[in-house]
């Protein structure tokens, strides 16, 4: 995710205060979590976004999974390098693969169009014929029926590639840009029986969205055995390896009981990625950090339990079954 709706949290480590960004894209009120209420375990999904975007990102993401502690990823279906990552998924079906549902094409000279024929979803394209570059333009111009058609087309294309899809999430948080988009996103998750990235924060609601309707969406997920995250962590500040590593360590130390997703963006700072995005060094740092044996050892020494979206889904289904049997 390159942008979205955010709130800032402060981590205090000794006398040093460190700021990191926690994604607010899906802040929910009154959600019921998939874990038992008395479970004090700190569960973590370490999730790499943007697979399929380009070759550099694919290779670094795969390496972070195979030689690091990244244990989940999500795929940008409209992007040119989808097939390469899809083949990896098919050849490694035990992995945890989500769909990074994409309604934006944000890079200046490296852009893509919709999966659905552009003539059928014209409101999702800018005057140059690419998907809109930012969340605001999608919210302003996008028609919800066309959003649904495009998101469904992305899911169906991934399934046609035989990707063993475990969950849905959103590029740049765009599905939370409007209430109707959000409802469409949840409806698709329920229809395909796939967890959707949805996060609970007590006493907070979506800016500009109807809190009552948001709570109803939470109830719908819960009643269908689809899990809801307790927290979501994403760090944008610092390209410097050592400083970025310390931010991650502090974030892990500060985790509270519940299920948290830590989002990373892996890549190699090569000519390809530098031509695409100004975030090449940051993505390279994420790959290096999450494959660093010393960093991995520090995380493994913490009181956290790594899980995947597949496991999180099973937790939610088990909780629902227990509730029904009472």
From TrEMBL:
<keyword id="KW-0378">Hydrolase</keyword>
<protein>
    <recommendedName>
        <fullName>ChbG/HpnK family deacetylase</fullName>
    </recommendedName>
</protein>
<keyword id="KW-0479">Metal-binding</keyword>
<keyword id="KW-0460">Magnesium</keyword>
<dbReference type="GO" id="GO:0046872">
    <property type="term" value="F:metal ion binding"/>
</dbReference>
<dbReference type="InterPro" id="IPR011330">
    <property type="entry name" value="Glyco_hydro/deAcase_b/a-brl"/>
</dbReference>
<dbReference type="GO" id="GO:0016787">
    <property type="term" value="F:hydrolase activity"/>
</dbReference>
<keyword id="KW-0119">Carbohydrate metabolism</keyword>
<dbReference type="InterPro" id="IPR006879">
    <property type="entry name" value="YdjC-like"/>
</dbReference>
<dbReference type="GO" id="GO:0005975">
    <property type="term" value="P:carbohydrate metabolic process"/>
</dbReference>
<dbReference type="GO" id="GO:0019213">
    <property type="term" value="F:deacetylase activity"/>
</dbReference>
<dbReference type="Pfam" id="PF04794">
    <property type="entry name" value="YdjC"/>
</dbReference>
């Amino acid at each position: 995710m390159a942008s979205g709706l955010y709130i800032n949290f402060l981590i205090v480590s000794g006398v040093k205060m460190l700021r990191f960004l926690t994604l607010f894209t899906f802040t929910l009120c009154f959600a019921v979590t998939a874990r038992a209420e008395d479970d004090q375990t700190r569960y973590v999904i370490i999730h790499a976004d943007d697979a399929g975007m380009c070759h550099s990102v694919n290779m670094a993401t795969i390496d972070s999974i195979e030689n690091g502690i990244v244990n989940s990823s999500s795929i940008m279906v409209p992007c040119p390098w989808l097939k390469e990552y899809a083949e990896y998924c098919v050849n490694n079906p035990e992995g945890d693969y989500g769909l990074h549902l994409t309604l934006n094409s944000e890079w200046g000279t490296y852009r893509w169009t919709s999966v659905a024929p552009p003539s059928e979803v014209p409101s999702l394209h800018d005057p140059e014929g690419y998907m809109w570059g930012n969340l605001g333009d999608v919210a302003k111009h996008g028609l919800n029926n066309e959003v649904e058609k495009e998101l469904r087309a992305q899911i169906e294309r991934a399934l046609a590639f035989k990707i063993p899809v475990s969950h849905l999430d959103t590029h740049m948080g765009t599905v939370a840009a409007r209430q109707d988009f959000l409802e469409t996103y949840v409806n698709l998750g329920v229809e395909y029986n796939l967890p959707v990235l949805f996060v609970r924060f007590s006493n907070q609601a979506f800016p500009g969205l109807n809190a009552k309707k948001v709570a109803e969406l939470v109830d719908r997920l819960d009643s269908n055995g689809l899990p809801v995250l307790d927290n979501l962590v994403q760090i944008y500040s610092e390209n410097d390896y050592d400083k970025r590593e310390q931010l991650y360590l502090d974030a892990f130390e500060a985790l509270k009981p519940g299920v948290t997703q830590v989002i990373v963006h892996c890549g190699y700072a090569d000519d390809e990625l530098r031509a695409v995005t100004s975030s090449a060094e940051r993505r390279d740092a994420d790959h290096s950090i999450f494959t660093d044996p010393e960093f991995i050892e520090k995380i493994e020494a913490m009181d956290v339990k790594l899980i995947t979206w597949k496991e999180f889904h099973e937790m939610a289904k088990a909780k629902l079954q227990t509730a029904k049997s009472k």
